[in-house]
Every structure is written in C-alpha cells, then in structure tokens.
C-alpha cells in the first residue's frame, strides 16, 4: 500500500510546476496546461485522502466532479482563446490590452 | 523497497519529469504531445491510490477530450506559435522568468512543509479509519460503491454538475460562433 505522504508529495510537485507554467509562459494554451496541472494535483489529493473514507466514497466522487468541471472549463477557455486570436492575431496574454472591441 | 513502491516512483518521476519538460521545452507541439505522457502517468498514480474508476475517467476525459480540444485550438491559431521562441534573460539569471521560478519553489516548499506535518501527526479521522479498518482495500469493488453513492448520497451535486455542463456547452458554442448577424 502506498502511503498518504508519497501521494501528497507528488501532487505538491505537480502543483508547483503548474504555478510556474501559469506565471512564466507567454502562451495562453500553455497557461491552460498549467491550470490543468494544478487541477490534477488537487484531484490527486482528493483521491489520496478519499482512500480512508470507505463509508461514503466522498473523495473519489468529488474527484469525478472535479474532472468534469475541469473539462468544461477547458472548453470555455479554448473558445475564449480562439476569439482572442481572431481579434488580436496572437495568443500572448500580454498582447491583450482591453476587454472591449 | 517493495515492488509497488518502486512502480509508484517510476510513475511519479515520469509525471513530474514530463511536466517539467513541458514547461521548459520551446516547441509547443512537443509540449502538447508530452502532455499525453503526463496525463497517462497521473492516471497510473490514481490507480495506486486505489481509484481505478477515476483513472479510467481521466484517460477518457483528458486524453480523449481535453487534449484533442487543445490540439484543435493549437492548429487553429498556429500562425505565430511555430516561430515562438522564448528567450531567457541573459546575465546573472540565466533562467527565463526567474521570478516565476522563485514563486513556484517557494510554494513547493510551503506545500512540502504542510505535507510533512500531516505525515508526522495524522488527522484524527485517518487514525480512526486505520483503527477501524475502514479504508478502501485493493480487493474492494469501488465502481459498484461509487455508482450507488453517486445516485443516492451525491445525487444533488451530480445534477448541479449536469446543469453546469449544459451551461458550459452553450457558452462555448456562443463564444466560438461566427459573428454575422450582430456586431
């Protein structure tokens, strides 16, 4: 059996990589990948703690919900990225200077 | 060191290493395909946490859906991306975006500190679960219990998520439509 400590350590590393991607990358798609890393680290934590909840399976159920919400967020974010690309001809977030047309 | 711990660490190093490679590589196409490797390795980690259904869902939703969407978005906006080379700052700090590196490492240190505290004094409910032997065992049929709980105890979040998914679908279609009838 893998202990709780190992899983939490791995998810901490994934979360740090996700933060780096969101902060440093000049590309909206890579920033989205960073957000996905952070969501996956959170799901890993839910699953790791959910192993000790055999009565209600709360961790695993909410891990499922988190995966579904992440997929919906990706769909909306990619639609926004495509709109931004159509308007600015670039997906560098630094180029996007105003919200209106 | 037992075999399962060894396998776990192989998967963990694959996940974290390919994630680091994704954020450090220059070519966006390569990093998008490396994202496959990371997601599969994370699915393997879910299996080690005894959540096999979550692992299968991860493979179906992320690898089948999210990654294909990202490839579409990449191909629809790749005019500038292929020539996209991010040059780091020259000089003392050879790392690109060293501030982001510092923040990420600081956050990692914080998280590791919290995790090691949890490892030293366990939360009470985990100790109780260990004493009563009420944690999920490898021979348990998790999918059976997960289905029953999803339809009884967690039916309200399930319905809320379904409504949310429909809203996200309509919103994404509305955002991505061609603008013709209105300005």
UniProtKB/TrEMBL annotation, chain A:
Its main location: membrane. InterPro entries: NADH_UbQ_OxRdtase_chain4L/K, NUOK/Mnh_C1-like. Its EC number is 7.1.1.-. It is found in: Cell membrane; Membrane. Keywords: Cell membrane, Membrane, NAD, Quinone, Translocase, Transmembrane, Transmembrane helix, Transport. The keyword Transmembrane applies. It is a multi-pass membrane protein. It comes from the Bacteria. It catalyses: a quinone + NADH + 5 H(+)(in) = a quinol + NAD(+) + 4 H(+)(out). The chain crosses the membrane at residues 6-23, 30-50, 62-85. The keyword Transmembrane applies. Belongs to the complex I subunit 4L family. NDH-1 is composed of 14 different subunits. Subunits NuoA, H, J, K, L, M, N constitute the membrane sector of the complex. NDH-1 shuttles electrons from NADH, via FMN and iron-sulfur (Fe-S) centers, to quinones in the respiratory chain. The immediate electron acceptor for the enzyme in this species is believed to be a menaquinone. Couples the redox reaction to proton translocation (for every two electrons transferred, four hydrogen ions are translocated across the cytoplasmic membrane), and thus conserves the redox energy in a proton gradient. This is NADH-quinone oxidoreductase subunit K. It comes from Olivibacter ginsenosidimutans. The lineage of its organism: Bacteria, Pseudomonadati, Bacteroidota, Sphingobacteriia, Sphingobacteriales. The gene is nuoK_1.
From TrEMBL, chain B:
The keyword Transmembrane applies. The keyword Membrane applies. The chain crosses the membrane at residues 6-25, 32-53, 59-77, 98-119, 154-176. It is a multi-pass membrane protein. It is an enzyme of class 7 (translocase). It is found in: Cell membrane. Keywords: Cell membrane, Membrane, NAD, Quinone, Transmembrane, Transmembrane helix. Its main location: membrane. Pfam families: Oxidored_q3 (PF00499). It catalyses: a quinone + NADH + 5 H(+)(in) = a quinol + NAD(+) + 4 H(+)(out). Its EC number is 7.1.1.-. Belongs to the complex I subunit 6 family. NDH-1 shuttles electrons from NADH, via FMN and iron-sulfur (Fe-S) centers, to quinones in the respiratory chain. Couples the redox reaction to proton translocation (for every two electrons transferred, four hydrogen ions are translocated across the cytoplasmic membrane), and thus conserves the redox energy in a proton gradient. This is NADH-quinone oxidoreductase subunit J. It comes from Olivibacter ginsenosidimutans.
């Amino acid at each position: 059996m893998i202990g709780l400590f190992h899983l939490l350590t791995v998810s901490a590393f994934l979360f740090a990589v996700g933060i780096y991607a969101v902060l440093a990358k000049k590309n909206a798609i890579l920033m989205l990948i960073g957000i996905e890393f952070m969501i996956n680290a959170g799901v890993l934590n839910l699953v790791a703690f959910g192993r000790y909840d055999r009565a209600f399976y709360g961790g695993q159920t909410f891990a499922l919900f988190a995966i579904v919400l992440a997929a919906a967020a990706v769909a909306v974010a990619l639609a926004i990225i495509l709109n931004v690309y159509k308007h600015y001809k670039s997906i560098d977030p630094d180029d996007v200077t105003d919200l209106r047309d | 060191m037992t075999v399962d711990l060894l396998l776990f660490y192989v998967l963990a190093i694959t996940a974290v290493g390919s994630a680091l490679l994704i954020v450090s590589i220059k070519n966006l196409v390569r990093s998008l395909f490396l994202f496959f490797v990371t997601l599969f390795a994370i699915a393997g980690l879910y299996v080690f946490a005894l959540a096999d259904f979550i692992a299968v869902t991860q493979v179906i939703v992320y690898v089948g859906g999210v990654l294909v969407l990202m490839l579409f978005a990449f191909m629809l906006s790749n005019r500038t991306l292929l020539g996209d080379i991010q040059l780091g700052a020259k000089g003392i700090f050879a790392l690109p975006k060293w501030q982001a590196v510092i923040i990420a490492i600081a956050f990692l240190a914080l998280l590791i500190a919290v995790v090691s505290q949890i490892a030293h004094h366990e939360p009470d409910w985990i100790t109780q679960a260990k004493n009563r032997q009420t944690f999920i065992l490898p021979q348990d049929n998790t999918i059976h219990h997960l289905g029953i709980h999803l339809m009884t105890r967690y039916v309200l979040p399930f319905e809320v998520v379904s409504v949310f998914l429909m809203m996200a679908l309509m919103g994404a279609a509305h955002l991505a439509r061609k603008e013709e009838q209105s300005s």
